Amino acid sequence: MGGEITLVWRDESGRVEAWKSNTNSLPYRIHDPAMFTDPTALLTMWFGAIAEAAESTKDDDYTYYKRLGLAYPTEYGIVVIDQVTQQILSCQEYTRPGGRPLSWIMLDWYNPSPEGTPPEDDDTDASLLRDYLEVGRVLGFETFKETGRVNDRPVFEEENFTCEELFGTKTPTPEQVFAFLYERIVDVKWVETSPGCGHTVPAHPDYDQWQSAQVRFDMSPWKLTHWKTMENWVRMPDGMNALRAELAKIGIPIDEGRWDEYTKVRLGGGDDEG
Fold first, then answer.
1. What's the average model confidence in pLDDT over 116-135?
2. What is the DSSP string of the chain?
């Protein structure tokens, strides 16, 4: 799936670009290890590709790609990459900067060896985890336990684990981590709750907690700030208002009218609410 999102880049000279773009490249480009080795080259390539896509689709009836005069959120929200203050500011519903869901990693890593070894291919969520482990930039994992339901939807309680807590070291090897995940998510037997009932549950007690977990990456020296657009399945304007205030503080201009419209129509509030 996917859709539209606003991506904003302020480079080291203070020049600002704002684009409407497709969401699909966001998780991979923003977590590319080049973000902490050569961010200018990466961002030049990324935003250059968006500009090329906009040019090649400008005459289409519909396009995901368009240069915006000033920044404002679109569909999924907005991500701002600011090299002046070395921040990544995000308020959107597509991907949280600084980590990836283990469910996506497991999809990429669908047929691992029986030992649960790291993947050999590249450009996937599984290889992204491998690459961050190889350079010692995995902080740990966020797991989620269901604690109740609201409007017939599950509500989860977050529990965090550092690599040191799980593996006895801050820098576990890819082999250690993938074997750990393999045991809890992939190599899991499903058993009937009672003989012949047909209702099965995972035999490993940690399966539910880990299959919905997120791995957290160390992306220093970038400072990451992510605001939610909903809480317990209810949309709210608070995060978008907080991002708007932060952009005013650091001097990145926005399209006030379009920002107001997005907040009111999509999030159910005006710019003074929350």
1. 82
2. ---EEEEEEE-TTS-EEEEEEESTTHHHHHT-GGGGT-HHHHHHHHHHHHHHHHHHTTTSS--S-EE-SSB--BTTEEEEEETTTTEEEEEESS--TTEEEHHHHHHHT-S--TT-PPP---SSHHHHHHHHHHTT-EEEEEEEEEEEEETTEEEEEEEEEEHHHHHSSSS--HHHHHHHHIIIIIS--EEESSTT---EEESSTTHHHHHT-EEEE--TTSEEEEE-SEETTEE-SHHHHHHHHHHHHHT--B-HHHHHHHHHHHHS--TT--
Q: 43-89: per-residue pLDDT in tens? A: 999 999 999 999 999 888 888 999 999 999 999 999 999 999 999 99
Distance between the two ends of the chain, CA-based, in angstroms? 30
Residue type at 145 in one-letter notation: K
Q: What is the pTM of this model?
A: 0.84
The pLDDT score that the predictor gives to residue 153 is 78
Residue 92, both tokens: 């959107």
Contact 12, 40 (CB under 8 A): yes
pLDDT tens digits along 149-196:
877 777 778 889 999 999 999 999 999 998 888 888 777 676 767 777
Nearest to 101 by CA among 129, 130, 63, 66: 129
- Tokens 């650091």 — which residue? 250
